[in-house]
């Protein structure tokens, strides 16, 4: 197996040194190839091999592991330091946003404490309404709100916001809806389970609560889906390379709770029986 990597060419007459892409056998690449920090030896992070390649290798970096508070990327083994909104650390004192070492992930357990593996769309190929050609990555996202001034302190404070939430996760300062589960209707993330996402689109009429970074083999712990009627699966294209939590169903058995809105039991993976509640068909 080989990877396309860039190499500098000999200097031109004007002193410039162009880069050229060349296929390089993996056996010739120095360092351990990785997809996430958990695959690396202690003290090393999983970082990009170069500026214009998706290849990542284990490499020594900063002293801090995923999930550790940081004020600069250089402090982290991963070389990345973001707040909950994936903004870099900025400001000082009371005006500083709370940032933590972040990096690539596939499941929640790849991340550090108080983090989850979030689904990020880094490119939509110019087609906003077509998720099948999106470039999606999993990245460790802190659960702590970016600024202390944004953090909730009581359940009553969340209810007063009238944003669909009714409970305060005091540890992280997040408002959420306690009874919400994967598949619940929503108009925003705060109407979903703690740290959940309100997914919108033609297959998610009226909004659809989800969490990501689950493991299809997990039955408990951080990689399991919340609720007793949820299923961890991966829609080819829109979710890859990570999995998400959906409302579970079976043909002729448990029906979709929002059938009146057009939700029906469907299959999202080849050769699998219908087991996920979605609207319509397609992407």
Summarize the structure.
The chain has 283 residues and is mostly beta strands. The protein has one helix at residues 155-160, and strands at residues 2-8, 19-25, 44-48, 56-60, 69-70, 81-82, 99-101, 115-123, 135-142, 167-169, 174-176, 197-199, 208-210, 230-233, 244-247, 263-266, 276-279.
Which key phrases capture this entry?
283 residues; mainly beta; 1 helix; two-stranded antiparallel ribbon; 17 strands
Succession of helices and strands: EEEEEEEEEHEEEEEEEE
| SS elements, strand count | 17
Per DSSP, the total helix count is 1
- Termini gap: 31 Å
Strand order of the largest sheet: 5-7-6
Largest sheet: 3 strands, antiparallel
Which descriptor suits the 3D outline?
globular
- Structural class assignment: mainly beta
